[in-house]
Design brief:
The protein contains four helices and no strands. The longest helix has 32 residues, at 16-47. Helix 3 (62-72) packs antiparallel against helix 4. It is rod-shaped and about 85 Å long. By secondary structure, the protein is mainly alpha-helical.
C-alpha cells in the first residue's frame, strides 16, 4: 500500500506510543463517565440519592417534630419546653 493509499483510508503511519496512550485515556474516560451516569440513574430511581427508606410509612414521633420546629425557629424555647412537658405528661 502506498502513502497515498494510506492517506485515503485515514491511516497516516501510526502515531507511536502517544497515540495509544491518548486512545487508552479516552476509552477509560468514556467507560468511567458511563458508569457514573448509570450509578446516578440507579440512585435516582431508588429514592433520592442514597436515602434508604424503611418498610412501611415512617411516622415521626411528636417529640422529634417539636424539636425540628424549635431548630427551625418556628417556636421559642419557652414554648418548646411547655409543649415537650405536655407531650411527656400525656398517657
Amino acid at each position: 500500500m502506498s502513502e497515498e493509499d494510506g492517506m485515503m483510508y485515514g491511516w497516516y503511519g501510526g502515531g507511536g506510543v502517544w497515540a495509544w496512550v491518548v486512545m487508552g485515556v479516552v476509552v477509560l474516560l468514556f467507560w468511567g463517565g458511563l458508569a457514573v451516569v448509570v450509578v446516578l440513574l440507579v440512585r435516582g430511581y431508588r429514592g433520592g440519592g442514597g436515602v434508604h427508606y424503611t418498610q412501611g410509612p415512617q411516622q415521626d414521633d411528636p417529640e422529634r417534630i417539636l424539636a425540628q420546629r424549635f431548630a427551625r425557629g418556628e417556636i421559642d424555647e419557652t414554648e418548646y419546653r411547655a409543649r415537650l412537658d405536655a407531650l411527656r405528661r400525656r398517657p
